[in-house]
Amino acid sequence: MTSAKPALLALADGSVFHGISIGVDGQTVGEVVFNTAMTGYQEILTDPSYREQIVTLTYPHIGNVGTNDEDAESEKVQLAGLVLREVPRRHSNFRSTQDFSEYLKAQKVVAIAGLDTRRLTRLLRDKGAQNGCILAGKKISEKTALKLAREFPGLKGMDLAKVVSVTKSYPWTTGSWELATNRETTLKDEKFHVVVYDFGIKRNILRMLVDRGCRITVVPAQTKASEVLKLKPDGVMLSNGPGDPEPCDYAIAAAREFIARKLPLFGICLGHQILGLAAGAKTLKMKFGHHGANHPVQDLENGTVMITSQNHGFAVDEATLPANVVVTHRSLFDGSNQGIRLTDAPAFSFQGHPEASPGPHDVGVLFDRFIKMMAA
Ligand SMILES: NC(=O)CC[C@H](N)C(=O)O
């Protein structure tokens, strides 16, 4: 690191951490959460579900392999700010196109390194996710940072899906094979047309559908069900996304319509919460959520345990599920809900990330389940 400008992180509870700036000068506010994944920092930074969140990566060395042109899960860095222990002086990887600190600056990220991320993580775990503020650059004041941290309204009640979504619908055609080889495949056999709601979608969800023979139309978050039905899809996917699911009334209404029409429906993360709300359940805000790539989740229907990728701060409240909803998956960390399916409609959803990226691929089978549902 060449310039060692100071930076500080203040939390609404009054804690202040000092470190050095590794991004641009400036200020940022958001909900501070920790992510325990040991790989996949570029995917985490570009996951739109992290909007309005300052993410602490507990893995101590971030940036070892630089950044590249393939791993981004959206077109830019999406999180509000970044907190790290250390960025190595040199990076090395055959795919790397940019140094990590240069990437942070080019992407205008306010980021702090050099603080005790273990102490910070313990604090967040014990007290719960905290609203916070990072100040980076020459003029930084603890008082200002604390004031800004306390002024952040918090994620509860924040509808961000419509904010991050696209404004126009578009087709998506790239699968994993094209990404890995940089060549277009001629083997495409498009069996199903899937309309995907973009609530802040991660690209790997789209690739995994293409890999399984789907033609894809991505639509904006507020697209009415009637518009989607005109496209005559074989199935609808409700994507992941940032913020609180409860205020997304437009998405909940659309999901209800698809359920009523018995159109195959698959929800991931925010999409899972939307399906839960559409079915009549409630969602709740978790203490510090799940953010990592090694969370054990049990499939209650066959007993298997899968290691999963996770990123959520809200959850479907199982106590509020109506009789036509079956709990299919549960977190083995805290027993919270991880999956549901409807008994009277072809609709199911998963709280974690079956598309992984980063993370293990154990839950990829859910994409196959969706394909089977459309085939039936
Ligand atoms: N990754 C996601 O889709 C997150 C869903 C929702 N914003 C939550 O935090 O719970």
UniProtKB/TrEMBL annotation:
Q: State the SUPFAM superfamilies in the record.
A: Carbamoyl phosphate synthetase, small subunit N-terminal domain, Class I glutamine amidotransferase-like
- The entry's active site is 269 (nucleophile), 353, 355
- EC top class named in words: ligase
Q: What is its EC number?
A: 6.3.5.5
Q: Which Gene3D superfamilies does the record match to this protein?
A: 3.40.50.880, Carbamoyl-phosphate synthase small subunit, N-terminal domain (3.50.30.20)
Record-level Gene Ontology MF annotations:
ATP binding; carbamoyl-phosphate synthase (glutamine-hydrolyzing) activity; glutaminase activity
Alphabetically list the UniProt keywords.
Amino-acid biosynthesis, Arginine biosynthesis, ATP-binding, Glutamine amidotransferase, Ligase, Nucleotide-binding, Pyrimidine biosynthesis
Q: Which GO terms describe its biological process?
A: 'de novo' pyrimidine nucleobase biosynthetic process; 'de novo' UMP biosynthetic process; glutamine metabolic process; L-arginine biosynthetic process
SMART domains documented for this protein? CPSase_sm_chain (SM01097)
Q: Which residues form the Carbamoyl-phosphate synthase small subunit N-terminal domain?
A: 5-135
The task this protein performs is described as:
Small subunit of the glutamine-dependent carbamoyl phosphate synthetase (CPSase). CPSase catalyzes the formation of carbamoyl phosphate from the ammonia moiety of glutamine, carbonate, and phosphate donated by ATP, constituting the first step of 2 biosynthetic pathways, one leading to arginine and/or urea and the other to pyrimidine nucleotides. The small subunit (glutamine amidotransferase) binds and cleaves glutamine to supply the large subunit with the substrate ammonia.
According to the record's subunit comment, the protein's assembly and interactions are:
Composed of two chains; the small (or glutamine) chain promotes the hydrolysis of glutamine to ammonia, which is used by the large (or ammonia) chain to synthesize carbamoyl phosphate. Tetramer of heterodimers (alpha,beta)4.
Name the protein family. Belongs to the CarA family.
What this protein is called in its record is Carbamoyl phosphate synthase small chain
Phylogenetic lineage: Bacteria, Pseudomonadati, Pseudomonadota, Gammaproteobacteria, Nevskiales
> Gene encoding this polypeptide?
carA
